[in-house]
Structures are given as C-alpha cells and as structure tokens.
Amino acid sequence: MKKIKQKIYDLIVVIVTFCCVVSMIGCNDKLTIKQDYNFEITHLPYSSKDVEFGQQVEIRFQIRSIGGEYSGTTYYLRYFQFEGKGFLTDEDARMFFPNDLYELSNKAFRLYYQPESGESHILTLTFLDSFGHEKETTLTFTTPQETQ
User: Fold this and answer.
1) pLDDT band for position 46 (50/70/90)?
2) 80: pLDDT confidence band, cut at 50, 70 and 90?
C-alpha cells in the first residue's frame, strides 16, 4: 500500500513538473491584439431625382466595422465628381474638394450635396481606413436641364 501511495505521489510530481515546464515554454510576452478589421459603408436613401439647382441634398452615412472593433482606427473620405458641377459639405459646413483626403471624426455623419448645374451628377466617394482598406460608393443626382 505504501508503494502505491509513493508511485501516485511520484506521478503527481511528474505531472505538475511537466505542466510547469510546458507553461513556461508556451508563454510569450508579446500579446497580439487584432487591429485590422474590415468595414462597410451604408447610407440612408436620399432624394436623387429632380434635384433643383441650388437645392441641398442630405445623405446620412454610417461606417460599420466587420468582425470586430478597434478604437484606434481612423477613417478618411475622398471624392471624385465625374459628371455635373456642385459642391459637397459636411454637417460642420466644411467644404470638400475633389481628390483631397479628409479625416472623418465620427462613424455616423451627414454629407450635403448641392448641384450648381442642370444636368446629371455622378460622385464617387472613397472611404479609407488607417489600415489601407478601401470602400467606394457612388451617388447620382439628376437636375432639370437649365433653360437657355
């Protein structure tokens, strides 16, 4: 009986020693935190048909992270205007210029487009994050033709 107790004790010592050695070898002082999450852009429906010259159209946007959230992510906006003439501003009345990069301060925001010509308008908005992900959305507007 004494030999069985000794063998059990020896086995427990070996198992505990093995666990300690494995845990020390398996430890890594570098904690990996995932920061690089993809995102998507959504916007509410907006009035795109028969927008009057000089009328301001509001578009509400939302940036949504996919798969996780990292608070250090910064988002940016760049836009291109392929057809029409008009201007784009944000809710703070900051005017955007085509091909320039602007930092977005919130993940929910409003943009305003105001046509300055009577024709079709096509804008491509490119959203980027600080990790290089890029998403595009296209906005189209039609305005009644100006009478000459």
Assistant:
1) confident
2) very high
Terminal CA-to-CA distance of the chain, rounded, Å?
A: 111
Give per-residue pLDDT as tens, 8-26. 777 787 888 877 776 666 6
Distance CA(30)–CA(88), nearest Å, equals: 45
Q: What fold is seen in the domain 38-142?
A: Immunoglobulin-like (2.60.40)
Domain boundaries, the chain: 38-142
Helix, strand, or coil here: 59?
A: strand
Tokens linked to 118: 């009577």
Residue 10 neighbours by CB under 8 Å, 6+ apart: none
Tally Cβ neighbours within 10 Å of residue 51: 21
Report the distance separating Cα 43 and Cα 109, nearest Å. 10
Does the pTM of the predicted model rise above 0.70? yes
Q: How far is CA 94 from CA 22, 23, 103, 110, in A?
A: 58, 56, 12, 11
The structure tokens 């069985």 sit at: 4
